């Protein structure tokens, strides 16, 4: 396995019973997908053998619809790419990391109390009635 590949394939490292369940589930899902298309195949054979003109008309309508879907999908992808490139993104403002002096100035308590509170396993913070920090034990 290449180390540069974007696909991570570790299937060979799975236990045999997990690989078996995965393969069986995949086969059942593919079978269900084919069964969902069965009515279209029956309709195709009925139209193709009974009325060739109706079959060609249906095929042309399907083809036109498929073309419109592809044009819409490509247009949507182009618009999204242009949107990402042309509309400026909001840049993240890098803020200076705060030190203990900034916290001491903000809370109006001595810097040594903050340092002591950080070094203890249990710190008790005392507040006044307005919620302002008065001191740290």
Please describe the topology of this protein.
Elements: H1 16-50, H2 52-86, H3 100-107, H4 111-119, E1 125-127, E2 133-136
Antiparallel strand pairs: 1-2
Helix pairs in contact: 1-2
| Tertiary shape | elongated
Low-confidence stretches: none
> H/E element string?
HHHHEE
* Count of DSSP-assigned helices: 4
User: What distance separates the N and C termini?
Assistant: 59 Å
Strand order of the largest sheet: 1-2
> What structural category do the secondary elements indicate?
mainly alpha
Task: Quote the beta fraction.
Answer: 5-15%
The profile of the biggest β sheet is: 2 strands, antiparallel
The percent range for helix content is: 55-70%
Strands, total number: 2
- Overall pLDDT metric: 82
* C-alpha-based Rg, rounded: 34 Å
In short:
The protein has 137 residues and is mostly helical. 64% of the residues lie in helices and 5% in strands.
Describe the structure.
With 137 residues, the protein is mainly α. Helix content is 64%, strand content 5%. The chain has a two-stranded antiparallel sheet with strand order 1-2. A hairpin with a 5-residue loop joins strand 1 (125-127) and strand 2. Helix 1 (16-50) crosses helix 2. The two termini are 59 Å apart. The mean pLDDT is 82.
Main features:
single chain; 5% strand; elongated; 2 strands; 4 helices; 137 residues; two-stranded antiparallel ribbon; mainly alpha
């Amino acid at each position: 396995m290449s180390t540069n590949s974007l696909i991570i394939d570790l299937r060979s490292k799975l236990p045999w019973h997990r690989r078996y369940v995965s393969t069986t589930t995949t086969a059942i899902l593919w079978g269900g997908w084919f069964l969902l298309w069965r009515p279209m195949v029956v309709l195709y054979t009925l139209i193709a053998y009974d009325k060739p003109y109706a079959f060609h008309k249906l095929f042309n309508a399907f083809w036109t619809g498929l073309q419109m879907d592809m044009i819409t999908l490509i247009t949507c992808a182009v618009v999204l790419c242009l949107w990402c490139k042309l509309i400026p993104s909001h840049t993240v403002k890098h803020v200076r990391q705060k030190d203990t002096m900034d916290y001491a100035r903000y809370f109006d308590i001595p810097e040594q109390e903050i340092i002591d509170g950080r070094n203890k396993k249990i710190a008790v913070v005392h507040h006044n009635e307005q919620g302002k920090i008065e001191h740290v034990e």
